[in-house]
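For reproducibility, we list the full input for the iron/sulfur cluster complex.
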Amino acid sequence: MTDLPKTTGKKLGLVIDLDICVGCHACAVNCKEWNDGGHMAPLTDLDPYGKDVSGVWFNRVHSFEAGDHECGRTVHFPRSCLHCETPDCVTVCPTGASYKRAEDGIVLVNADTCIGCKLCSWACPYGAREFDEIDGVMKKCTLCIDRIYNETLQEIDRVPACVSTCPVSARHFGDLGDPESKVSKLVAERGGMDLMPEMGYRPVNKYLPPRLPKQQKAAPLMPSEEVEAKGFLAWLDRRLSR
Amino acid sequence: MHPALSIVFFTTASGAGYGLLVLVAWAALIGHHAPQTYFGITGIAVGLGLVGAGLLSSLGHLGHPERAWRALTQWRSSWLSREGVMALLTFLPALFFAWRWVVADQIASLAAWLTILGAALTTICTAMIYASLKPVRAWRNLWTVPIYLVLALYTGGLLTGLLLNAYGLRGPFIPFFVSIAGILGAVLKIGYWAFLDGGRSSSTPENATGLGAIGKVKMLDPPNTEANYLLKEMGYRVARKHAGRLRLIVLVLGFAVPIGLSVLTLYVGAVAATLFSLIAVVSGAIGILAERWLFFAEAKHTVTLYYGASRA
Ligand code: SF4
Ligand code: SF4
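The corresponding predicted structure, in tokenized form, follows.
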């Protein structure tokens, strides 16, 4: 069970566009809303109205500053399970509760057999697994398995909750194993990246890098040399600087 | 990483228990103290007792202890599963060995050898749980397994010393063994700490976010204002100052004092020797618990790169 499938039929995953994400957290909130009643429900909150609030989230939006000066920019960065192709979070699991589906590559936890040893969360470099203190089991993004195959939903809604809610369309869902799919083309065109490739987990989800400003000589914001005042201005300058 | 007391206790207690089992079985095999029935039976009982107490304590760490049997199923891929299987398997030869010794006053050599093998393999599996975790540089390195093995033998040696003295079976072998294993353990720990302080993992905020092409990456806002599971479990940090002090405690209480006392037992009377070896066990226990606590507390996980850490 915790052996990984040799190949998966599809490689379903997300493509997240860091160029246009505005950091509104709508995806994280809609994820929480849907999944609180979904496959891994509930997403327990501890002390929800108290001082020390904490709870299970499958998707968290960070904000970073990258680069300095005129090239620097703020990048909003949603972080969730990348449904890796060779993830240790699955192989370290002693019970078989953690598994990767052979048909579509989705990485899931079986809440009925998980013993809550937390080892899988240690094995995930990306912090994509969160332990539910109340249920005593590990929880994680399901790629909205209960939406994408859900025939009671309209076809347009058969995408993960985060994708359907993003107001700027910074999130895309599809089969990254099919080079002809929209998401694969997007990744090819924009140079989609793997996070921490050195771990060797081969994430399925890709991140599209922010577009860099066109190479241009940055115009100085202020004249860099001081200009000597002449005539009336020189006189005024002398008066004022006394 | 969060140093959960149940795991700190589990790894140290079962390590010492396996070390003791190995030394008792070995003593029996080479005919050194055998067949001293009481020493043998107490040694095996204390050894298995420590292993059992450790296993029970590790169950306390689980969200669903009643499902723990499921952890025996995935030995093909999971070191944690392999550890559970090996721990249970090792009970079989150990119990048979004990039974022959007590009931028939005989040393079952095959069972003794299998006990030694099982103890070694279980300790290696425990260490491999940590040594196989790629996101934690402090664990995934070549120091982890030898340190677990040497410390298991060393702490087992301290316990064996106490039992031998208590039964009036004093000899130079255990003080010699404890000195060698202890000095080796201390040297390995010092080397490990130099490795820990001297390098960094190849993961950075730049490749964790993929934004390195733009420039240096700094956290601006975390996703949430309060701490969450990830930060509590993986973001545990111990102040450098405290870590320095604890390392000293490990070296002094964990190694220097017990080694010194073990050697001294050779030069004093029987009562004093027993007392010395008891103090050596207590001091060693405090030191090695501190060592294991630090093993967790000083370990950094790559997820902290998303939460403002500049290195992992
Ligand atoms: S992101 Fe983490 S939890 Fe998800 S598949 Fe990869 S290693 Fe496993
Ligand atoms: S917490 Fe559950 S899913 Fe994760 S490794 Fe342990 S048993 Fe497997």
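Residues 12-208 of chain A form a domain with the Alpha-Beta Plaits fold (CATH 3.30.70.20). Residues 59 and 223 of chain A are 46 Å apart (CA to CA). Both points were considered when choosing residues for closer inspection.
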